Amino acid sequence: MLLAIPAVLSAADVAACAADLAGAEWADGRITAGTQSRTVKDNGQLPATSPVARAWGDRILDALGAAPLFVSAALPHRTFPPLFNRYGPGQSFGTHIDNAIRPIPSTSIKLRTDLSATLFLSDPDSYEGGELLVEDAFGVQAIKLAAGDMILYPASSLHRVTPVSRGVRLASFFWVQSMIRDDNARAMLFDLDQTIQALAATQGIDDPQV
């Protein structure tokens, strides 16, 4: 299942985040790449220890907890602390699959990456290129969302970021370990929950669990 989740961050939060990112110390994006993806990755990334990454990562996690569509779709058990990347002119990330297991920094916890997420932080008109291409059952999906919107998709999907030809593409990215490992089962539960919510709304029921 590939799902766009709108307005995870408000316009004001996006502007504040972008301003903080502009003054942060960026590193080579290959610091979190696996052996294979390291050869096709060319971008900048904030180190996980960056105060900016930690502060905004916490803000994003709080926002996700208050996003019913994300909770319904992901059924999150654990969420990797959000990271941040930057693509300037000529930079891209070739076709790859994310690592199946990710150790959470400064902990003994290893997270199973059931879902990948990209939260867009740049206005799509401010840069050219930089589309996220995700291969799913319907073919290759090209994704370039409004700043503050997020795309959620299976971490086992082949995906890439096309070269940026103008401007700068900023984004946050992370992974989710779901309570439901199987993507098809999770999609069925999401559809069921959305149907219940829609029926509850037509019947004027505030709490569909009643």
List the helices and strands and how they pair.
Layout: E1 3-5, H1 11-22, E2 27-28, E3 41-42, E4 44-45, H2 51-65, H3 68-74, E5 76-79, E6 83-87, E7 92-96, E8 101-103, E9 110-112, E10 115-120, E11 128-129, E12 132-136, E13 139-143, E14 150-154, E15 159-161, E16 164-166, E17 169-178, H4 183-202
Antiparallel strand pairs: 1-14, 2-4, 3-7, 4-6, 5-17, 6-17, 7-15, 8-9, 10-14, 10-17, 11-16, 12-13, 12-15
Task: Note the main attributes of this structure.
single chain; alpha+beta; 5-stranded antiparallel β-sheet; 4 helices; 210 residues; 17 strands
Task: Explain the overall architecture.
- With 210 residues, this protein is of the alpha+beta class.
- It has helices at 11-22, 51-65, 68-74, 183-202; strands spanning 3-5, 27-28, 41-42, 44-45, 76-79, 83-87, 92-96, 101-103, 110-112, 115-120, 128-129, 132-136, 139-143, 150-154, 159-161, 164-166, 169-178.
- The strands form four sheets. Strands 1, 2, 4, 5, 6, 10, 14 and 17 form an eight-stranded antiparallel β-sheet that branches. A five-stranded antiparallel β-sheet has the order 3-7-15-12-13, with no helix packed on it. Strands 8-9 form a two-stranded antiparallel sheet.
- The two termini are 28 Å apart.
- The mean pLDDT is 94.
